[in-house]
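Quick question, first post here. What does this chain look like in 3D?
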Amino acid sequence: MNWEQGEDAGRRGAGRGRGRGGGFGRPGGWQNADVPPADDAQAWFEGRLPSEWFTSVSVTVDREEITVVGALPDEATDEAQAEGRISRFRADTRTRRMEIADEAQARYGRKVSWGASLGDVRMLFTHISVPVMTRLRQPERRVLDTLVDAGVARSRSEALAWAVKLVGEHTEPWLADLRKAMEDVDKLRAAGPEL
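> Answer (accepted):
Ran it through. Tokens below.
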């Protein structure tokens, strides 16, 4: 399937229909037992992507998506030129990127999203929007409504995304330690005896 068609069209349902996978509702809590490991995704993409495309590539992985953003080798004199060069790269490489995305999806069990950067300009071509189930009580809903009423966000959904981003920015060292600890637990569990 070509995930570039209609940008996010067709992606709205991504992550659904996976049964009990993904989250605290399954045995083991937060472990990624229901998706293949993607520890080597950075190296795989670096080896798989044509060398002339990017000077460097950044690969970010979560339970549903792999985001690949490459730095283009050209120079740009201004923002408009950079945006034009990125748009040209997007159009010229679409078919090959979709082939690579299909290979990666088969290998890692996740959708692949693409982007490029040139100088200070960074553009994502595609990305998935995964619905998140939340049960917020009135005090939490009032926080979101305040952000909407103040014009910080257009909807509760956007306000929640803004809040999560803000928390992530201010707690990244702690979150990185937590992710490392979870990886260590997963490795210990995998090395344990079979039941």
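The first strand starts at residue 56 and ends at 61.
Helices lie at 41-48, 79-108, 138-149, 156-170, 172-191.
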